[in-house]
Amino acid sequence: MADSDPRIAPLSLTVPEPAVRPGGQPDFSGVPIPRAGTVRRPAVDEEPEAMRDLAFTIIRVLNRDGAAVGPWAEALALPDDELLTGLRHMMLLRIYDARMMTAQRQQKTSFYMQHLGEEAISCAFARALSPGDMNFPTYRQAGLLIAGGYPLSEMMHQVYSNDGDRLRGRQLPVLYSSKPHGFFTVSGNLATQFLQAVGWGMASAISGDRKISAGWIGDGSTAESDFHAALVFASTYKAPVVLNIVNNQWAISTFQGIARGGAGTFAARGLGFGIPALRVDGNDYLAVRAVADWAVARARANLGPTVVEYVTYRAGGHSTSDDPNAYRPAEESAAWPLGDPVVRLKAHLIARGLWSEERHAQAEAEILAEVTAAQKAAEAIGTLHTGRRPSPRDMFEDVYAQMPPHLRRQRQEAGF
Amino acid sequence: MADSDPRIAPLSLTVPEPAVRPGGQPDFSGVPIPRAGTVRRPAVDEEPEAMRDLAFTIIRVLNRDGAAVGPWAEALALPDDELLTGLRHMMLLRIYDARMMTAQRQQKTSFYMQHLGEEAISCAFARALSPGDMNFPTYRQAGLLIAGGYPLSEMMHQVYSNDGDRLRGRQLPVLYSSKPHGFFTVSGNLATQFLQAVGWGMASAISGDRKISAGWIGDGSTAESDFHAALVFASTYKAPVVLNIVNNQWAISTFQGIARGGAGTFAARGLGFGIPALRVDGNDYLAVRAVADWAVARARANLGPTVVEYVTYRAGGHSTSDDPNAYRPAEESAAWPLGDPVVRLKAHLIARGLWSEERHAQAEAEILAEVTAAQKAAEAIGTLHTGRRPSPRDMFEDVYAQMPPHLRRQRQEAGF
Amino acid sequence: MPRMTMIEAIRDAMDVSMAADPAVVVFGEDVGYFGGVFRCTAGLQKKYGPSRCFDAPISESGIVGAGIGMAAYGLKPVVEIQFADYVYPAYDQIVSEAARLRYRSAGEFTCPMVIRMPTGGGIFGGQTHSQSPEALFTHVTGLKVVVPSNPQDAKGLLIAAIEDPDPVVFLEPKRLYNGPFDGWHDRPVTAWKTHAQSEVAEGHYSVALGQAAVRREGRAVTILAYGTMVHVALAGAEAAGVDAEVIDLRTLLPLDLEAIVTSVRKTGRCLVLHEATLTSGFGAELAALVQAECFYHLEAPVRRVAGWDTPYPHVHEWIYFPGPERVARALTELVEEA
Amino acid sequence: MPRMTMIEAIRDAMDVSMAADPAVVVFGEDVGYFGGVFRCTAGLQKKYGPSRCFDAPISESGIVGAGIGMAAYGLKPVVEIQFADYVYPAYDQIVSEAARLRYRSAGEFTCPMVIRMPTGGGIFGGQTHSQSPEALFTHVTGLKVVVPSNPQDAKGLLIAAIEDPDPVVFLEPKRLYNGPFDGWHDRPVTAWKTHAQSEVAEGHYSVALGQAAVRREGRAVTILAYGTMVHVALAGAEAAGVDAEVIDLRTLLPLDLEAIVTSVRKTGRCLVLHEATLTSGFGAELAALVQAECFYHLEAPVRRVAGWDTPYPHVHEWIYFPGPERVARALTELVEEA
Ligand SMILES: Cc1ncc(C[n+]2csc(CCOP(=O)(O)OP(=O)(O)O)c2C)c(N)n1
Ligand SMILES: Cc1ncc(C[n+]2csc(CCOP(=O)(O)OP(=O)(O)O)c2C)c(N)n1
Ligand SMILES: [Mg+2]
Ligand SMILES: [Mg+2]
Predict the structure, then answer these.
(1) Average pLDDT, chain A
(2) For chain A, which domains are there?
(3) What are B195-209's pLDDT values in tens digits?
(4) Which of A137, A327, B117, D112 has the greatest number of C-beta atoms within 10 Å?
(5) Would you call A262 and B273 a contact, using CB atoms and an 8 Å cutoff?
């Protein structure tokens, strides 16, 4: 029988490994990166079958010289102030992150997750949506709130779980929620909401509404079962949803190859469902915005879902509980070929004479002042272990619309 | 805002519907069917990316005249007696099914599921495996047992839940199990085992063994989450597994379009994972065997998984609890363009002078006698409600390797 | 009043709700054109169109997860899981999401969804068409859990569940779909048509969640049951000739503890019944509560009669199923004790 | 004897098992190169190679489902679910498959697999890093459920679990990973190094599944606890100055009922503790069993102290967590009762 046939070599298990580990020299030469402006822009109603190529390339707009080039740039043509606003959002998010990271180290809260290197994605995407649309974000899309004008103080109250927190200190830091800002309550469970985004979009379609939804998921989380359910339902019912995959190369200590397997890209997953799938330079604010506009237009026109893979790099640790140097070279981040989103948009604005190093430094100072002020105000209310915290009574609220007898008894037993 | 913008048409939900419902005229003209022998046969080690076309066509060997044509036929070249054996297996499965359907109507058991029209798939695939390999079948692959020489009487004891049943009357009819015959205990839960097949194959690879596994799933069940997990794990670890999707056009009352969505085929799902995906005429015994041999060879050579979509038609009801005329035209089955697997192989053998109508009729009579005899013997032991049944003590066995105290107490309380 | 089977009553509840509120949508495996493998949604697609009643892919997680998104949008999804035995792939969406949305978002996002599923045994469905997973939901705060025992209640409870602002797991004892079943499987089955509780009022009415009903008054012992076991309890009491009070819990979460305590303090004895396996079944919670609340009134320990701790078998269904004999034996021992 | 933290003891158990049996394989999210977010598998990939200890995709269902296939092949997979709060996507594979294989196939296919997961709260992990889902497994016949409370047991129980022929859900109280925790969160934490139960024998030894241990002898009341709550029980008894007997259940399924009954018949009073939410928690089964087995010895109703029936909160962790004060209060009331 085959399993003892000497002519057949024994089997062996393949376990994908990243190109380098700590001690090794980072090498991204294996990552093919097309020149900016070279990838075509199909019509939003082009047949999905005719766009398969877009799942295996990278749509890029900003070139080395900071110029915006190619069909996606032309279709975009953003007014100058919108570009300056975009830069400001990314700077604000980065500075806010830095302050909160420090606050966590100072034990003002238990935990934090930053966006370092990924700011362009959520900040640019937010601007492509309309009021009433709904994002189903992960913990790494706070740019959707920042770019949506959500007050910093609200965010900080949530991070500190203080008495100002609208979520009453129930949720882990950064798991924000704001219906008015189209930001669905973030779950700590991965991938569950990617599917809910599809259901939300289906509901809008069932209701003859015009609102669309956006699902968000990380490269590692695409391995979760709900990712499949999301694509099945989106594909079958042509849900008006943008399915965003943020490929920042890493899960926690696990590199993208473990989730991706033999497929060259994550965008490729969409092809198995006949869903248009685009890959875009996630560190290119203009490219992200251009592709977001395209996908949002498809959904809005009832043409169905679009899968978008954002190619980026998680420059920081996974969270404040993580030390990336334990599993990847510290130099890897600097070697990342797509650069830094803030630096790249800044260069573009300077190239266009809309911005300067001076104004940038000045803006940084202003934003820092703004963030610091908001932080002072927030800390005046309280932080995780100090100051005014939500009432313990709140712990028993909102489990149900109306508190059932057994819960009321428990609250009394607890003494509140 | 967008959702009230009069220039934007309101959204609407797309709900796929089959081409016809009862009362309508069956029409499969929309189903593109390439001529037999026209689809190329790549080398087993060809790059998956280079074979994407095979996920969107149908590999066929037997043509209208009953001739075996094309590259897949040439690669196959089965000895005559193997062909005759194949025909016999399909006939045996069909007659066995017919008898058991009747037995269920006579209330000799609670439930039954037949293979009518799908016999070629499990009967031919079984012959491509080697002893020691393991199938993870659904309830509709009894051909794996029949073609593997599993005794009919054993199968009948299981269907009758009588005292001869090795599974001690615990399982619903047709959920067989036989390790020696490479037939994993069938679960009533869909898709769970597609994933287990991948794990089994990984275990063989981890152990430096030479055994491979085969997962089985239906078109409708590919929507289940575990289908995704199976492809993720198979793709990442290059598991030695053949991932069989039996597309018989229907789930229960739900047509394949609800599970498939926008993708043209189920084989296409494999492309999102960089897994070679082939579509084959499931009613063509030779095509099934040829493709099975190819996929098994890939797995055996440690080249990794293959997705195979068998295009077939469920000619009967989903189960004895189902009346298909309630949701599809009774004429649809006859209109199915790929014909009947038994008739087609028979025609091929007659065309080759290996078989005749007379011998066929004679074989049918012999097989019927064989099945009837086995059935008599089985019924002599008992049926679901009559004769010798497994001891109630068995109901408490095998929950654990050793019966824990609480279960022993319960058994005593039950009086056994 | 019209007489309905449990299936007709459940269908009517959805029909009435869909007619009254365009936000109510119904979907699940085979529920659209065909109307469900148990026909509970028959005719709804024809009447309300395919975007309000449709077939779903075979993905329980997808059905519930998409439903949660719809509920968060503002619809009222009523989804069907074909058999309770198949709800586990959706367990994460139910436990981690549906049950938590309101709490997590401090009421900003909610999940007014009903998850219907046929539950329980008695149809020779073997391991995967017979399970009773209610205890896996009663441990999950944020959910409500309902199990009707007759057509009247089924309609009223389902309408209440659909109108409830929170997620409700609605377990339908499939053995009761076409007729009451008292566990005497070898005796002729009576159809609902000949049963008082099949008189179902037309149009809209609801039976409040969280309220039990006394099905039989008695002084000797209190039987706590729900779903099919309510009928088995009555049959068991008859068979034992014991003056038992039978309480139909109807809603397991939130529980009508007051009705339970009042009865047990009166009878001083308590028998808990369910089809689900014994260990960590909902009967454990009931026994724990009763002994805590009625300790000084109890003349004997609370007793549980339940499914044996084995997977649900095929051939030995009637040895596995906690039928009237087991109930009668337990009652007799219970009233004789102490 | 070497002293180990719980993490070191757990790692050692896997190391010893992998060295002794090539069939033992370890995988899960981040368990390979990095060695797990809690470092429980650190060094194993280096020592045994990537095909015996490797990173898995973020798919709990995939991890368990693939593990079942491996176990059916003949390997002994020890899989890690990164947090118990994330086990639900794998719930179907555990309940419908792992727990049923042996029964379904009459012993032809079995599932000797261990599913490890950090459980419980006390680390400000909020809703999704603090849950205690043990009761969702104790209701599933075919599974074994283990919860160690110290390094000595952790190693011995894990080795026993790996060698067990059936699937074992192995819940590791994460708050105990680096030191014993008695619930006095505002007092300095002692490291395991200074704790007697951190003396862990080298090499192979096992602690039999299904056997409880008495951690403190007493006459006034029996406390039933497991995992972190064992330490809270001891602290609570101290605080209340009550002569309590503390039983560490160690294995919840199968349960050491004899040890429980013996103790409660002696003390006549019983307090059940767990971190999980109260309703339908494992405490319900314990209370139900104790009142049934010890009815005539009980001088007061069995009491439960558990997590409130709310999702696990962030800021109010120490109000939610059933700490020594709540235990002490319950003990005092319990011994004064009747
Ligand atoms: C169901 C579930 N499993 C595991 C985890 C633990 N976990 C939190 S984040 C994370 C990595 C996610 O990686 P990716 O999807 O790439 O997102 P990224 O953090 O890179 O944005 C893991 C494993 C979880 N939160 N939920
Ligand atoms: C998890 C789960 N959900 C639902 C069912 C009920 N069910 C049994 S067979 C079936 C249809 C399966 O269709 P398909 O996968 O196409 O297989 P086929 O019967 O056509 O071979 C359904 C919905 C089940 N057994 N398990
Ligand atoms: Mg990532
Ligand atoms: Mg099918």
Answers:
(1) 97
(2) 31-318+331-385 (3.40.50.970), 392-416 (no CATH)
(3) 999 999 999 999 999
(4) A137
(5) yes
